[in-house]
Amino acid sequence: MATDASVKYRINDLVKVRVASPPGHFRTPTYIQGKTGQIVALCGVFPNPESLAHAGSGLPKQPLYRVEFEQSEVWAEYPGPAKDKILVDIYQHWLEPVEAPGEP
Amino acid sequence: MPRVHDRGGWSTNEPIDRSDHQLTDWERRIDALHGVLGAKGLRTTDEMRRAIESLEPELYESMSYYEKWTAALEILLLEKGVLSKEEINQQVASSKGQE
Amino acid sequence: MSDQHDDHKLHPGIGEDSGPSEYELRAKAMEDLLVTKGICTREEVQREVDLMDARSPSDGAKIVARAWVDSDYKAMLLADAHTAINELGFHLPDTTPQLAVVENTDTVHHLVVCTLCSCYPRMLLGRPPDWYKSLSYRSRAVVEPRAVMREFGLEIGEEVEVRILDSTADLRYLVLPKRPEGTENMSEAELAGLVTRDSMIGVTTPRTPETAAA
Fold first, then answer.
1. What ipTM does this complex have?
2. C16 and chain A in contact, CB less than 8 A
3. Could you tell me which CATH class the domain B26-97 is placed in?
4. pTM score, two decimals?
5. Which residues of chain A from 48 to 77 reach within 8 Å of chain C, CB to CB?
6. Which CATH architecture does the domain made up of A14-98 adopt?
7. Domain that residue C28 falls in
8. Cα gap B32→B38, rounded to integer Å
9. B3 contacts in A (CB within 8 Å)?
């Protein structure tokens, strides 16, 4: 059994955050779930906090990405300028790929 | 429906209270105890977060920061069988008796 | 495990003049029991208290000042914060959570929050301020960052992009603030004196030479 999930996304990939509310501990805030953003960094590969929180092994480790979202995409009535961004650190298993416009 | 700790974007107009309080001795010590036990592998950040998140919502919102840390540590130490509730209660009762 | 919530129905010790709260007593009881059982020592706890008391924003300020005067150091800091920090003589323990430094510029202003709890670069800045851990900061920083900064006295122009970082996972973030104008002739130590804790979180900017002298 592989101990690390393999790195799936590259910088600039578009990704969508899964919507879910699993029982137990998880680190994906509700406000960002269902939103589409862009990978800006691979932060590293880390043990899964959902498992560690219950004294589990944390395996398989998950790649952790810094994902950038436009505030106007995240909030229905964002009061600030359209260029403002929010960056959230999200584990790979919470992300789904999205095709960029114009891709086949 | 976000859980009580999942706070981003919750509707509030409450201005941010920028006053700082000096940590009391007991707050420093429970803070330190977490660090010491963490270094010994008896408590992890993830377990600690999970324990705090398990507090009743109305308590989560009313307890102070270090009161939550105290409650969380007790949850974890009991869970791991390091201490028992009876021992802690007895120790508290003894300390009151000595006042 | 079934009745572990009972004691948590205790009232928090708000406004109690008459001695320690139940939580304080339980905290002390746990420490006493752990020491009696040999799981930890009083000295270990005291050492940890002293370690955290010794950490303060002035540590972060030194890092910022060095990055302002030395562009190679700044590059290293942005690429590998732990290595850069330890280069200045700090000894970050191996268990320190990974730290990333983000740079404020003329066009980008960063703000750091932890909406889910209170993650903060403690080993570099010390313990976080109460407001950082507050429900109102955690709720509002992500949805109305400019209003939050305004409360701290900071107005960010519309032409500047605000970037909020929500420290949801294993990383902690430190803001490298923009170097204030008119500081070309200041020494590194004087520059460090301009750097405030709040400017390294992003709710404010550093002091200026004028306000620092006041």
1. 0.95
2. no
3. mainly alpha
4. 0.93
5. 49, 64, 66, 68, 71, 74-75
6. Roll (2.30)
7. 20-54
8. 10
9. 21
